[in-house]
Design brief:
four-stranded antiparallel β-sheet; about 130 residues; alpha+beta; 4 helices
């Protein structure tokens, strides 16, 4: 009996843990974002934003970030500020997140999403000039 209870408990815990780690693509697919037709990247330190409308650029950007895995942080205390906010739009539907917060939960990303988005944002700024 104890062995059966232990196995059930172990399976339950491993199932909960596995469900919490998700790729970015899983997050936005769960939000019913199927065909991204617009991406807005906002710089949290300046308020400036870059909008991507060309499908080739959207696909390129998503290919860089969609497989990044997000693991919930142990400490979920409220924080102030963010480096970049991203909005993915599919027609009228939108999925908004910051680089370490999705749906009011703070995450660590693997690989780290910060340098990827930072480099892409800076490249967009160069292309505008």
């Amino acid at each position: 009996m104890k062995r059966l209870l232990f196995i059930i408990l172990l399976l339950g815990l491993s199932g909960c843990t596995a469900a919490k780690i998700q790729s970015l693509e899983q997050f936005y697919k769960n939000a019913k974002i199927e065909a991204v037709d617009k991406v807005v990247i906002q710089d949290g330190s300046t308020g400036a934003s870059k909008t991507i409308l060309e499908q080739e650029q959207i696909s390129e950007f998503l290919s860089l970030i969609k497989d990044i895995e997000f693991t919930p942080q142990d400490h979920q205390e409220q924080r102030v500020g963010w480096r970049y906010g991203i909005t993915l739009l599919d027609g009228e539907k939108e999925f908004k997140f910051t680089l370490n917060e999705i749906d009011d939960i703070y995450y660590d990303s693997n690989p780290d999403i910060h340098p990827i988005v930072d480099e892409y944002y800076k490249q967009l700024a160069i292309e505008e000039k």
